[in-house]
Amino acid sequence: MHTNQLSGPIPVELGNLKSLTDLDVFENQLNGSIPSSLGNLTSLNALYMHTNQLSGPIPVELGNLKSLTDLDVFENQLNGSIPSSLGNLTSLNALYMHTNQLSGPIPVELGNLKSLTNLAVFENQLNGSIPSSLRNLASLNALYMHTNQLSGPIPVELGNLKSLTDLAVFKNQLNGSIPSSLGNLTSLNALYMHTNQLSGPIPVELGNLKSLTDLAVFKNQLNGSIPSSLGNLHL
């Protein structure tokens, strides 16, 4: 049903389709809230509702969908907090919630999603700190948390994410120093930390990121000298 001009709400009765494996209603003009009855679709592998005009909260009942590998609700008008119950979706590969009006903290429970390769929560109104529990996402390739109201330091534990190719935390209110542990992310292609309140020196360990093609640290409060180790990069 995707990529049409469908409007109005998603019917609650779709929650009766217990054998459904894929529900694709993206790129329409659907509005209203996401029915909590979709939490009954326990055979669902993929749920694509992005690029509509959906509003209200993400139902906690979506945490019942243990077979889900892809959840896309981006580019809507969703608000409220990210449900901690999404941490139950341990088969999830991709979680895209960006470009909404979500608020509150990033749940620590998202650190349970050990199969996750892509996590996008950018362009919301999220606040609080970046959970150190994200260090458990060993399969993660891309982590996009930019353009929110996140504060506190960048966790040193993010240096455990050895599969990461893209890390974007720009346009937040992050402070403290840049962790030297980010120098462990040797698969990283892009590192965007600009437009925050980061202070202290640029770690020499960033010179270990031989795959890096994009590094942005402007509009912070960094001091000290530019490490000569950055001359090893292919920027």
From TrEMBL:
- Give yes or no: UniProt keyword Membrane: yes
Extent of the signal sequence: none
Mind naming one GO cellular-component term on file for this protein? plasma membrane
Enzyme Commission number, as recorded: 2.7.11.1
Among the GO molecular function terms of this UniProt record, one is: ATP binding
Transcription among keywords: no
Using the record's annotation, list all stretches that form the Disease resistance R13L4/SHOC-2-like LRR domain. Answer: 10-100
InterPro entries tied to this protein? Leu-rich_rpt, LRR-RLK, LRR_dom_sf, LRR_R13L4/SHOC2-like
Q: What class of enzyme is it?
A: transferase
The membrane topology term of the UniProt record is:
Single-pass type I membrane protein
Q: What is this protein called?
A: non-specific serine/threonine protein kinase
Q: Please name the source species.
A: Lactuca saligna (Willowleaf lettuce)
